[in-house]
Design goal:
The structure is a single chain. This protein is mainly beta. The protein has a single domain, classed as Porin (Beta Barrel). The protein is 13% helix and 56% strand. It is built from 3 helices and 13 strands, in the order αββββββββαββββαβ. The strands form 2 sheets. Strands 1-2-3-4-5-10-11-13 form an 8-stranded antiparallel β-barrel. The chain has a two-stranded antiparallel sheet with strand order 7-8. The longest helix has 18 residues. It is elongated. The relative contact order is 0.18.
């Protein structure tokens, strides 16, 4: 809990530092990419090093209705929520940069398996309502390292610019929870098996395009 509180204090400390800096050392960025939509504040610490803090969010859902002969529909949703504290290093004093930092990762993937057919077993009819539903949720380590290559520097060239990040969030294996109702209730006990099956998904790819504005 102390580490989490310290992480959320970083943006406040960053803004306090930036507020005392010269105006040309401060920039804002609007982001769009695999981490969602977001905003960042950037501070030029030295000629080769910039610091950034930001937040990215996105929410989407989709009901996948299968063919009439299939047994289930799938109602899936994705919620992205990332708070970043990053440092950019421009080793050649040009637009190329290496980026490293930490991410507070509240990304969540969830899905509901919805029966849509009735079954007759031993003369008894079981409707979709009798079968119930099965809900799954995938979450990740809340604090994760981040490494990336990037192009663009908000503190060189024109006041307006375009940046790009290509990197990875080391999120760790997903944690899986299952909840079930009706006759599907015993299926909730399969959570450890599903968690083992998706344990390979330890990396989250990042491709972000940023539009920057340097404040003078």
């Amino acid at each position: 809990m102390k580490k989490l509180k310290l992480f959320f204090m970083l943006p406040v400390l960053f803004l306090c530092t930036a507020a005392t800096a010269e105006a040309q050392s401060f920039a804002v960025k609007a982001n769009a990419g695999t981490t969602g939509l977001g905003l960042e504040a950037a501070y030029r610490l030295s000629e080769p090093v910039n610091l950034r803090i930001g937040a990215n969010f996105l929410s989407a859902s989709y009901l996948y209705e299968t063919d009439a002969d299939d047994e289930y529909d799938l109602d899936a949703s994705l919620k992205l929520g990332l708070i970043t504290a990053l440092a950019d290093w421009h080793p050649f004093r040009n637009s190329f940069r290496l980026t490293a930092g930490l991410v507070y990762n509240s990304n969540t993937i969830s899905g509901d398996l919805l029966p849509k057919k009735s079954y007759t077993i031993g003369g008894d009819v079981y409707t979709p309502e009798d079968l119930g539903s099965l809900s799954s949720e995938f979450t990740f380590n809340p604090i994760a390292p981040y490494l990336a290559l990037g192009f663009g520097n908000a503190f060189s060239g024109s006041r307006f610019g375009v940046n790009m990040d290509l990197g990875l969030i080391f999120q760790g294996p997903p944690k899986v929870s299952l909840e079930a109702e009706g006759l599907l209730s015993p299926s909730a006990a399969q959570a450890p098996i599903l968690e083992d099956n998706v344990s390979w998904a330890t990396l989250y790819p990042v491709l972000t395009l940023s539009f920057t504005y340097r404040i003078n």
